[in-house]
């Protein structure tokens, strides 16, 4: 539940990123093809602007990728990018057309059998890739990456890019790696509120590292991007939610977004209730954040210098995906507490008071009030159940699962069972509608045979 990152310090790091970048582009191409066919979009025409051979190239590359993952073969020629720059540059040109041009088509006469064959093979490869690309769900199709300075704050110096050459130029000076940037995969399927992207600032208090003792704060703030989400535009007002940045766009924001581009947690929970998702905060989002923070701290115990009877307040940034899974974006060791908005101004005095309750009162009396801080107990935040989410193909009768926290109430499993049943019924209805659409679309003497409705 952390988007993958690359810290480029040497040539090997750079090669690892390039492999990730290219793999993401290949898988994204499969998604574009599958989604287009499932949406009844015609992507084949005799005068198309993308060579049909690109499809065969992508299928072959993904097959080689899968073979490499399954066999551990590191000698596959396809992954020697330095020796095949021309081939990959040409592929990226056509891939860019696919994600930018909504009317892009492959240059092949439309034949139903061809479309069916392409769809079946691409869909199969996507299913196989899921095992080795577990974050493919959040990747989307545009291969966008965030380039973050390692030492700045408040959004200073952050840029988004989907261009490999531009990314390389940013992280190198005279062919020397700058070692001052982190490359992080952008989450392209975020939860939207009023069509705008949000993220969460979650405070947590560490009072011991051996063993790990961490306290999560039950209140925090929700940062809005000012304008409606779109992967076609790279504007910071759409994608970067930092308070300093969004202050510039308050006067031109989406009118439904709060004036200060900010909510507290309670307001977000009210919104979730209004959209019929009253359980996801207590049973998915907050436990998921607890799980991620505890896991990170546990992983850092060997490299962290801790002094007895000390504590530190941190600020973690989480992005919630459209299926309500929290992804840890970053952790700030010195979170800003200045009252830059009324929301923060109201929360911080209570936060500071509650820190004293944990670090002084609770030490003297284990039964003392700890305010809005709750101690993270690992057993209570382990992912013990799978939460169904929509698959990429609505007509697919299978159910795709995302990792979620343990069931916290007896009614949770019942609700999940009902959700699975409802999803199955919806898919059956969509399959019926798709079959009806296809019957109108595909004409000719072999129509019934192609649709599987003939004898």
Structural commentary:
By secondary structure, the chain is an alpha+beta fold. It is built from 13 helices and 18 strands. Strands 9, 10, 11, 12, 13, 14, 15 and 16 form an 8-stranded antiparallel beta sheet that branches. A 4-stranded antiparallel beta sheet has the order 1-8-4-5, covered by helices on one side. Strands 2-3 form a two-stranded parallel sheet. Strand 6 (172-173) and strand 7 form a beta hairpin. Helix 1 crosses helix 2, helix 1 (11-38) packs across helix 3 and helix 1 packs across helix 4 (112-129). The chain is globular, with a radius of gyration of 24 Å. It starts with a strand and ends with a helix. The model is unreliable at 383-412 and 440-455 (pLDDT under 50).
Structural class: alpha+beta
Low-confidence spans: 383-412, 440-455
Strand content: 15-25%
Shape: globular
Q: How many whole angstroms does the radius of gyration measure? A: 24 Å
**Strand tally, please?**
18
Mean pLDDT: 82
The largest β sheet comes out as: 8 strands, antiparallel
The percent range for helix content is 40-55%
Distance between the termini: 49 Å
Number of helices, counting only DSSP H or I runs of 4 residues or more: 13
Topology of this structure?
Elements: E1 5-7, H1 11-38, E2 44-45, H2 53-71, H3 85-100, E3 106-107, H4 112-129, H5 136-139, E4 145-149, E5 159-161, H6 164-171, E6 172-173, E7 176-177, E8 181-185, E9 192-193, E10 196-209, E11 212-217, E12 221-224, H7 236-239, H8 243-246, E13 262-264, H9 265-274, H10 280-299, E14 312-320, E15 326-332, H11 342-364, E16 373-375, E17 385-389, E18 400-404, H12 410-441, H13 447-451
Parallel strand pairs: 2-3
Antiparallel strand pairs: 1-8, 4-5, 4-8, 6-7, 9-10, 10-11, 10-12, 10-14, 11-16, 12-13, 14-15, 17-18
Helix pairs in contact: 1-2, 1-3, 1-4, 2-4
């Amino acid at each position: 539940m952390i988007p993958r990152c690359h810290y480029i310090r040497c040539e090997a790091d750079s090669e690892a990123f390039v492999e990730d970048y290219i793999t993401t582009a290949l898988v994204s191409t499969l998604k574009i093809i599958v989604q287009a066919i499932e949406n009844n979009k015609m992507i084949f025409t005799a005068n198309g602007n993308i060579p049909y051979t690109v499809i065969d190239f992508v299928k072959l590359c993904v097959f080689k990728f899968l073979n490499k993952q399954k066999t551990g073969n590191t000698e596959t020629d396809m992954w020697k990018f330095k020796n095949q720059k021309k081939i990959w540059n040409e592929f990226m040109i056509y891939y860019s057309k696919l994600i930018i041009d909504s009317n892009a088509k492959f240059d092949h006469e439309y034949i139903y059998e061809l479309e069916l064959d392409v769809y079946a093979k691409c869909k199969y490869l996507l299913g196989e890739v899921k095992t080795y690309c577990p974050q493919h769900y959040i990747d989307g199709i545009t291969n966008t990456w965030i380039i973050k300075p390692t030492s700045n704050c408040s959004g200073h110096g952050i840029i988004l890019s989907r261009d490999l050459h531009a990314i390389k130029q940013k992280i190198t000076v005279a062919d020397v790696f700058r070692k001052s940037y982190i490359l992080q995969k952008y989450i392209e399927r975020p939860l939207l509120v009023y069509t705008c992207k949000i993220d969460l600032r979650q405070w947590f208090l560490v009072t011991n590292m051996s063993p790990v003792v961490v306290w999560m704060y039950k209140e925090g703030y929700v940062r809005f991007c000012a304008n409606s989400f779109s992967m076609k535009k790279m504007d910071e007002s759409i994608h970067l939610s930092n308070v300093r940045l969004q202050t510039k766009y308050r006067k031109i924001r989406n009118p439904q977004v709060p004036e200060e581009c900010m909510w507290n947690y309670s307001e977000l929970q009210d919104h979730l209730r209004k959209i019929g998702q009253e359980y996801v905060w207590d049973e998915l989002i907050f436990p998921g954040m607890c799980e991620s923070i505890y896991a990170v701290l546990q992983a850092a115990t060997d490299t962290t210098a801790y002094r007895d009877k000390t504590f530190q307040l941190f600020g973690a940034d989480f992005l919630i995906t459209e299926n309500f899974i929290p992804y840890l974006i970053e952790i700030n060791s010195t979170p800003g507490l200045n009252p830059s908005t009324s929301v923060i101004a109201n929360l911080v005095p209570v936060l500071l008071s509650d820190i004293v309750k944990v670090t002084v009162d609770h030490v003297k009396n284990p039964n003392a009030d700890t305010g809005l801080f709750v101690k993270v107990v690992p057993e209570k935040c382990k992912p013990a159940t799978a939460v169904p989410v929509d698959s990429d193909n609505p007509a697919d009768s299978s159910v795709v699962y995302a990792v979620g926290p343990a069931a916290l109430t007896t009614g949770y499993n019942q609700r999940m069972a009902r959700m699975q049943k409802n999803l199955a019924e919806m898919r059956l209805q969509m399959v019926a509608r798709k079959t009806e659409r296809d019957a109108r679309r595909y004409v000719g003497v072999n129509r019934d045979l192609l649709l599987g409705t003939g004898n």
